[in-house]
Amino acid sequence: MDRTLVEQIGPYEKLLSGSLLVMAAGVLDSYTYMQDDGVFAGLQTGNLILTGLRIGRGDYGSIIQALVSLVMFAVGVAIVRIIQYHYPNERAVTRKRVILVFEMALIMIVSIIANHVSILISTGLLALAAASQLQEFRKMKNGPFTPLMMTGNVRTLSESVLDFVAQGDVKALKKAGDIVTIIGSFFIGALLNGYLIQYLHGQTILLAAMILLITILFAK
Q1: Are 149 and 116 in contact (CB under 8 A)?
Q2: Helix (H) or strand (E) holding 151
Q3: Phi, psi torsion values for 63, nearest 5 degrees
Q4: Which element (helix H / strand E) includes 124?
Q5: pTM for the complete prediction?
Q6: Which residues of the chain have pLDDT under 70?
Q7: Residue 140 — φ and ψ, nearest 5°?
Q8: How far apart are CA 201 and CA 110, in angstroms?
Q9: Which pLDDT belongs to residue 7?
Q10: CA distance 106 to 51
Q11: DSSP-assigned letters across all residues of 9-63
Q12: CB atoms within 10 A of CB 50
């Protein structure tokens, strides 16, 4: 007898949780770019590009923030990897919640110390937060997922739309809809930060913490 096996979607791997995570990531990266002199918390490819450009122009004084972000991002990955050792997949729900709370705590610390300490400290803490998210949340609907970078999602969107148009693949159309939602959520996070930061300044980062709290409470 034939059976259709449907792989169960894991905790925090649904479209809603993925959308909220990328929205928070959009806030994080746009916040550090605007508040910390053109540095990204999570988009380390961007930091490498900007660092190369600045060195090429002889602007050595402004590369320290990017280097701090790179190093602290690597440290954040190591910290979350240790957490993953202690919480295997059988305890994935608890592990993911612990990491979300860890990320929220880092963000709230930054909101308190913003404008009172060197931007190197806030940049480093937010790089830790971004790394935590990237290291733990790598699947959506049982497929590969990254909440920090949209390049791969744009590629997948183009591929899925073509597969639907050329081959009538309905699954590809549904996948394209999911990807549009993810890209749109990232854009909305950046947009909200860009609007609110002119009024809330350093406290704007709390928006990312609020989004993560909603993820914990409603998006499992």
Answers
A1: no
A2: helix 151-167
A3: -95, -10
A4: helix 119-136
A5: 0.92
A6: 1-7
A7: -140, 125
A8: 12
A9: 65
A10: 25
A11: PPTT-SHHHHHHHHHHHHHHHHHHHHHTTS--SS-HHHHHHHHHHHHHTT-GGGS
A12: 19
